[in-house]
Write a structure and sequence with these properties.
There is one protein chain. The protein has 18 helices and 12 strands. By secondary structure, the protein is α/β, with parallel strands linked by helices. The strands form 2 sheets. It has a 7-stranded mixed beta sheet with strand order 9-8-7-6-10-11-12, with helices on both faces. Helix 2 runs parallel beside helix 6, helix 6 packs across helix 18 and helix 17 packs across helix 18. Among the domains are: about 130 residues, 3-Layer(aba) Sandwich (Rossmann fold); about 170 residues, NAD(P)-binding Rossmann-like Domain (Rossmann fold, 3-Layer(aba) Sandwich). Helix 14 links the parallel strand 11 and strand 12. The two termini are about 25 Å apart. The longest helix has 25 residues. The structure holds glutamic acid. Glutamic acid binds next to strand 3 and helix 16.
């Protein structure tokens, strides 16, 4: 069977040699699901893996818009509708200069299993554009979003494909895209999620990803007979995910001693809490992409320029910035620091070899597709809220989110146990996510 899985991996590598991020996740997932394929030869017979690694549909389009100087700009927009076995394609849109099919296909492929783990009726997809909202005026962002949606609108719908935000796409961008979608489609539906609460959005959606990560981390610790309260934590990232994570860690009594930004990291042994949490939001809103001013404002803290925070000794590490931010050197720091817990917040923040190294050295790893699934789970609640034409309370949302995250941990832990893999949540999450999609695909025939 090892040969078979390697053949799938090699064939994907041969077909898409210029998409390293996509190949990274394909390799990681396929190596994990090997025991499932061994137990289910009918999956092999049905060409399930060959179908899974190929998006059901990929759309690429021109996005022309006019900047504030009256100059025509042209970007490239994409949507990869990866898998609809469990429900409408669901996943975010990323606006960043490095967006190309390899990044969106990695995100779309991960999204299939993540969405499956939520237990909710959502398939997997991802899209975006090579557009950088940083440094653009509000009017430019609006014109870009409208131009982007002028093409995307014909491919999406509440029961077809439901985009949301991701890096570079927050409430503002979703608002503009939703406005344009509503105008073109002439109906007010839940076709985009991550909308503001004054705009059909779900209460608590902004914090949901970060809160969910901490609920998942709490379950990991509990499983190992430990408590989150009193633990020291290091968090990277400068967006919503990091912010929600820091907030919930504080609420549950943990202590965040380091946070990072694009320019370096802040070490604050007193803990990033109270007005310091709010200051994180201010720094982000400044649009300058720097964390350094934190140390000027709170002199008990220290700014370490140009470095990643993984050299700081802590009990729990949560990378919330972007893909592959933790490589071998970083993993070595984390192990040297005697860490026991590492929970991924960003999508695929760790290289495959770094994950292996952490696990081999006794660090319990919570994989992103399980730990950060709270965001998309709440997006599905937003779809439900919009479809029933009601407004949910924040308390309802948080209660649902917590039980979904507890269940995801349980599913992943049971799946690795079932296949004799011990407490390996990386493999367990891949297996549990795959099994649900595989069952649905088998029932739907070769389509
Ligand atoms: N971009 C987020 C993710 O990676 C959210 C997707 C969604 O809400 O559809 O899961």
């Amino acid at each position: 069977m090892g040969n078979l899985v390697q053949k799938y991996i090699d064939a994907t590598k041969a077909k898409y040699p210029h998409e390293p991020e996509f190949l990274q996740t394909v390799e990681e997932v396929l190596l994990s699901i090997e025991p499932v394929l061994e137990a289910h030869p009918e999956y092999v017979e049905a060409g399930l893996v060959e179908r899974l690694v190929e998006p059901e549909r990929g759309i690429q389009f021109r996005v022309p818009w006019v900047d504030d100087n009256g100059k025509v700009q042209v970007n490239t927009g994409y949507r990869f509708e990866f898998n609809s076995a469990l429900g409408p394609y669901k996943g975010g849109l990323r606006f960043a200069p490095n967006v190309y099919p390899g990044i969106l296909k990695f995100l779309g492929f991960e999204q299939i299993f993540k969405n499956s783990l939520t237990g909710l009726p959502i398939g997997g997809g991802k899209g975006g554009a090579d557009f950088d909202p940083n440094g653009k005026s509000d009017a430019e962002v609006m014109r870009f979003c409208q131009a982007f949606m002028s093409e995307l609108f014909r491919h999406i719908g509440p029961d077809t494909d439901v985009p949301a935000g991701d890096l570079g796409v927050g409430g503002r961008e979703i608002g503009y895209m939703f406005g344009q979608y509503k105008k073109l489609a002439n109906c007010y539906t839940g076709t985009l999620t991550g909308k503001g609460t004054d705009n059909g959005g779900l209460a608590g959606r902004t914090e949901a990803t970060g809160y969910g990560i901490v609920f998942f981390a709490r379950e990991m610790l509990k499983h190992c007979g430990e408590e989150l309260a009193g633990k020291t934590c290091v968090v990277s990232g400068f967006g919503n995910v990091a912010w929600g994570t820091v907030q919930k860690l504080n609420q549950l009594g943990a202590k965040v001693i380091a946070i990072s930004g694009p320019d370096g990291y802040i070490l604050d042994e007193d803990g990033v809490k109270g007005e310091k949490e709010d200051y994180m939001l201010e720094l982000r809103a400044s649009g300058k992409n720097i964390v350094a001013p934190y140390a000027d404002k709170f002199p008990e803290s220290k700014f370490v320029a140009g470095k990643k925070p993984w050299e700081v000794k802590a009990d729990l590490y949560i990378p919330c910035a972007t893909q592959n931010e933790v490589g071998m050197e970083d993993a070595k720091h984390i192990v040297e620091n005697g860490a026991k817990f590492y929970c991924e917040g960003a999508n695929m923040p760790t290289t495959n070899e770094a994950v292996e190294y952490l696990q081999e050295n006794g660090v319990v790893v919570g994989p992103a597709k399980a730990a950060n699934a709270g965001g998309v789970a709440c997006s599905c609640l937003e779809m439900a809220q919009n479809a029933e034409h009601l407004i949910w309370s924040e308390d309802d949302v948080y209660a649902q989110l917590e039980s979904i995250m507890v269940n995801i941990h349980k599913l992943a832990a049971e799946a690795c146990e079932k296949y004799g893999l011990g407490y390996d949540l990386v493999k367990g999450a891949n297996i549990a996510g795959f099994e649900r999609v595989a069952k649905a695909m088998m029932l739907q025939g070769i389509v």
